[in-house]
Structures are given as C-alpha cells and as structure tokens.
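W.,

You were right to be curious about this one. When I first looked at the sequence I had no strong expectations either way, so I just let the prediction run and decided to look at it fresh. Below is the sequence, 300 residues in total, followed by the output.
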Amino acid sequence: MTFSIGLDIGGTKIAGAVFDTSNKLLAEKTVPTPTAYDDFLLACGALIELFDKACGKKASLGLGIAGAINQEHGTVFAPNLPFLENRSLRADAEKKFGRTVHIANDADCAALSEALDGAGKDYRTVFGLIMGTGVGGGLVVDKKIYQGIHGLAGEIGHLPLPFREDPDGPLVDCGCGQKGCIDKSLSGPALTRLYKMMVGKDASAEQIADLVKQGDVDARRVLDRFYTVAAKAMITIIHAFDPEIVIVNGGLIDLPGFYVEVPKRCGRYALNKNLRTKLVPAKFGTLSGIMGAARLAQLF
C-alpha cells in the first residue's frame, strides 16, 4: 500500500496529515509556521518524519502553500511567507526530505480535494475560496487544477474589491504592495476592522459570529455589511471564471447565514441577474487543503 503526506502551509500554521490509498486519515498534526527559512524546513521535516513513522514507510509528499507557485523553477511568491522569496523551495525540499516534492497553491489544493471527493464532485468547474487570515482562490476544471502560466489563476485575494464604498471598511495596505485588495476586505482581520469601524469596539471574527448568534444587534449590522462585501468579491469570481460552484473554506467557513445572505446580494452587481452558481461550505473543512496536497503526487 502507498501513503501520501499533505502539508497545508499558511502564514501562521503548518497543518499536516498522512493518508492511505483510500484517503483514510492515519495521523495529523499542526505546528506554528516559523519565520525563517531554515527553521521552516526543519519544522516540515519533523512533521514528515512523524508521518513516515505512522505509516511505516516513506510516503509521497505534497505541499499546499498560500502563494503563487512557479512550477518551472519550484519557487513561491507568498506575501504572508516572505522568507520563501528567492528560495528554490522544491529543490531544497527534495534534497532535505529525500523524495519528490509536489507543490501547489493552498486554495488549489482545497479546491482539488473538494472537486474529487467533496462538495464539488458532481461539477466540472469548481472554485475554492479560502476565507481566513487571508483570502485565496483556486480553480479546478474537469478534476484538474488550472494554475495558469504564472500560477496565479484564481488568486482573487490580490484583486481590488469591486464596487467599493466607504461603508465596506477601511482601505488597508496589502502585503502585495497595493491597497484595497479583496484579501484585506473579506478576511477574518477585515471583519474585525469593519466591526471596529462600525461599532467602535474590538472583537475577533469568532466573537462577532458568536454575538450574532446571541442576537446582538450591532454584530448583526456588521455581518450584514460584511455579506455585501462578500457578494462584491463573489462577482470577481463569477465574471472571471463563471464556475458552477464556489466552495468556501478557512476560518470564516461557519459564519451564520453566509450561504443564504451572500447569494441574495450577488444579483445587484452581476451582469446576469439570475445566477445559478452554488455557494457552499467545504465538505472536508480544514482537512480539504491537506487532502488536496496529499493528492498532488497522484496527479503530477
């Protein structure tokens, strides 16, 4: 039997797991993301060693990373992982870990697992939307990741929020060097900033969601505006890619009312006022990205 390791690498944590050929989870672990390149390779190596031991042999390896992947050179541009800049990650990882290393964008990985076995398995065109510390996107067509020539396909987080208005939240500098990116408008920190602007108090995205569930009027008002922002961001996805289904993952996957309220607002901004694009949460939740990374070895 063969085994596959997937590492889902973000700005704050590395989540990993190992699976058998039937996608059965054998072991998983999450560690903080280091801030230096050598420490990062050590942290990944420790997880890989743990997972190899769990399955009793050297497993195949896939890395899902929050950034743009240059497949020709095996390099990554990731604003939230600056230590990866100008590094030959794939070559270094293969040398250090002693095996072929497959790399893809984390949102691509999440979209892939959902397209193969999850909420998008019955659709040809699947867009995976990550909403967490940042915002990312990935496109899968006919069960294959479409990355584009620069590895940027689906990277809506670094497009400007369309139809922006002052009530949509403060205009914030982005790690990509621009202002007003969707990444800074539809993320967890963006929801926190919007709450601060509208209510004058500090609260995390999780706290805001809890307040809404408790019937808090101010939190409900903030979330209502946030859903309008989300609808505007959805138009970028629909007009650019026109997928059959958009599957949401990340820390904001369970915002109350999201999958009902956002579609209601999309018609205000779309060319087609009768949209059929489905908006749903990921079936595999936080495991989607890890599972997709683990499947990379089977596809490349």
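Here's what jumped out at me. The two ends are 19 Å apart (CA to CA). And, maybe more interesting for your project: The chain is about 35% helix and 20% strand.

Coffee later to discuss?

I.
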